[in-house]
Amino acid sequence: MQSRWQDDDANACHGELALRAYTSRLLGQDPSLVLHGGGNTSVKITETNILGEAERVLYVKGSGWNLETISAAGFTPLRLEYLKQLAQLPSLSDTEMVNQLVTHQTRSAAPVASVEAILHAILPHPWVDHTHADAIVSVTNTADGERRIREIYGDSVVVIPYVMPGFDLARICADRFAVEAGVNTIGMVLLNHGIFSFGQSARESYERMIALVGRAEEYLQQQGAWQHESAAAAAAHGMDLARVQAALRLDISRAAGVPMIVARHADDRRLAFARRADLAMIAQQGPATPDHVIRTKRLAMLGRDVAGYVARYAEYFQAHEPHANERKVMLDGAPRVVLDGELGLCAVGTNAREAAIVADIYEHTIDIIQRATALGGYQALPARDIFAVEYWDLEQAKLRAGGPRAPFSGEVALVTGAASGIGRACVESLLARGAAVVALDLNAQVAAMHNSANFLGLQCDLTQEVQFTQALVQGVECFGGLDMLVLNAGIFPGGCRIDALAGDEWHKVMGINLDANLTVMRECHRFLALAPGGGRVVVIGSKNVPAPGPGAAAYSASKAALNQLARVAALEWGADNIRINSLHPNGVFDTGLWTEDVLAGRARQYGLSVEEYKKNNVLKTEVTSRDVAELAAALCGPLFARTTGAQIPVDGGNERVI
Asked: How wide is the angle at C-alpha 9 spanned by C-alphas 4 and 11, nearest 5°?
């Protein structure tokens, strides 16, 4: 642990709330302290209300905010004295507690307060920090965790046994703190949960947290439980293992009831963990902290027996649901973490961002498990305690707050020729519908098109089969499979009559517009056949297929051949639940194919000006890349679920096509 406090940054904060946000971000920037919404912080401030009265207000982190990026707007102001009175009640249901928090905010537009707001209120310090530090959890998740914590900290912390977050935890903390806190107390450890620090200033509370966690790290080092060597583990890659991953994704998606992203992580450390001889014991205890269960489920799946995992999850539900205070509806039984000796770690999510969160959480879980194991044996909370959090209405509400599922959430698309024009627009349209997109282009700038967990841009020459298969494997490893394929890459050479058409030019056009697409279709078929919702292919053809023009023999012939290939594929692939349809655009001039020279040359072929040529259609309108992309995305959606082998013009109405 190292303090990240900077005097210049702190001095630039105007007011206590801005300073609270600053030190909260310092905590959030260290993933060994908090991850993805974990932890919370607060500050108690005296403010003047609308009646002119001085009033003590607790500003506590709002639900849904991450400490890493929190601003002043992420804190909820609550009437402090009222919260302290609530803490004296003998009991308070979760629903009523949330109601009381919401109705006693001093700003109606503030987010819902953390469920630990009452706990923050009863601590007699103006500044309070709370994290789920890896080092603390590593120590407490052992059989004698409490003894070790007392050995590390003595009377500098109050130790609280595990109690589910909420009102009961606040009451127990208040009772224990009143009895055990002394002049040396600077923090509080919640067993199997995390640690609190507090102080009279933002810096004091923050640096006490750093110091307390640092002491746990030093203890782990002294006990030989800090470093864990990973045996050399060679990860395999290639089409065969990618297909294994895609088949696993299909099984998981069927268990979940919706398509899921299954991201593979096969670095040395995670692969070595997945190959540990004692994995069945150490990885089947439970999560490092109970709140992780809503992301990772209670247990990782070992191997690929999804049906067996689902059956065991149902048994877990049936064993603990009868003891709940109210009836529960079972969640899907699909795993969220897979540990496999060949695949390594696979993180599962409803989208790529969720899968990345699962991967982050379990990466830290691996550290915690291995350190606790070295300390004497990893021991998570009993299954009944984990069940209570997994099916806690307040935790489930956090997931529901994400809004409705996007149409292509959990699905994966591959777009060729993705760096410009129609390909780029297709990437945008698919991302907007929630798809994870693998974008391929000869232009290296494709890699930087988007900064999103749902996007993977790869430079790739489609005429080089090895390059493409490597890119396809990389895409599958990143997202788990393939559901949609948009064949867009192609070239449109300048006008040239047949009597002047060189063989090299003909073969170049055929190689890119036809041969490369055959390779892409052939290699993608095995993955499209494993798409949970059925595979979909959209071929970006051309008006020149039904209505060729002079001077474009190579282009017209290559697109016509590709169109025929797509028709045959529609016949052959229907049995694999793959549908394939073609779009025939015309006059789409915001693409890389249409250079100024090419555009001018084609206009001359028809005896038109450039502007006349752009709108040379029945509707006298210009067709854009976005127009084509939106229809391509729609072809992949439910509206065309029973359509295959179709050819649709996107040309503003071409007289010769009509």
From this structure: 125
Rounded distance, CA 413 to CA 476, Å?
10
Query: How many Å apart are CA 351 and CA 479, to the nearest integer?
Result: 9
Which one, of 12, 13, 84, lies nearest residue 44 by Cα?
84
The answer to whether 77 and 58 are in contact (CB under 8 A) is yes
Coil, helix or strand at residue 369: helix
Contact (Cβ atoms closer than 8 angstroms) between residue 54 and residue 46 = yes
- The one-letter amino acid code at 240 reads D
Beta 337-340 vs 301-302: how paired, if at all?
parallel
- Cβ 271 vs Cβ 344: under 8 Å: yes
Do you know the residue count of the chain?
658
Sheet holding 301-302, edge to edge: 261-265, 344-349, 337-340, 301-302
Q: Are 542 and 555 in contact (CB under 8 A)?
A: yes
Residue 580 · residue 645 · CB < 8 Å:
yes
CA distances to 143, 257, 565 from 571, rounded to whole Å, are 62, 28, 10
Exposed/middle/buried for 639, CB within 10 Å: 0-12, 13-18, 19+? exposed
Domains of the chain, earliest start first:
7-222 (3.40.225.10), 251-400 (no CATH), 412-650 (3.40.50.720)
Neighbouring C-beta atoms of residue 270, cutoff 10 Å = 24
Which residues partner with 340 through β-bridges? 344
Instruction: Give the position of tokens 């098109």.
Output: 449
Mean per-residue pLDDT, 383-398: 85
pLDDT of residue 390: 94
Relative to beta strand 484-487, strand 127-131 is unpaired
Position 453 pLDDT exceeds 80: yes
What is the SS3 assignment for 160?
A: strand
Cα angle value 265/270/273 (rounded, 5°):
145
Taking a C-beta distance cutoff of 8 angstroms, is the pair 362, 300 a contact?
yes
Q: How confident is the model over 592-607, as a mean pLDDT?
A: 82
C-alpha count within 13 angstroms, C-beta hemisphere, residue 352: 23
Dig out the tokens for 505 from the structure: 């030019």
Question: Closest by alpha carbon to 645, among 557, 558, 553, 565?
Answer: 565
- The token pair at 481 is 């499979």
Other beta carbons within 10 Å of 491: 15
Q: What is the CA radius of gyration of the chain?
A: 30
pLDDT tens for each residue of 612-657: 888 889 999 999 999 999 999 999 999 999 999 999 999 999 999 9
**Which one-letter DSSP state was computed for residue 381?**
-
Going by C-beta distance under 8 Å and a sequence separation of 6 or more, which residues neighbour residue 307? Answer: 251, 255
Band of residue 395 on the pLDDT scale cut at 50, 70, 90: low
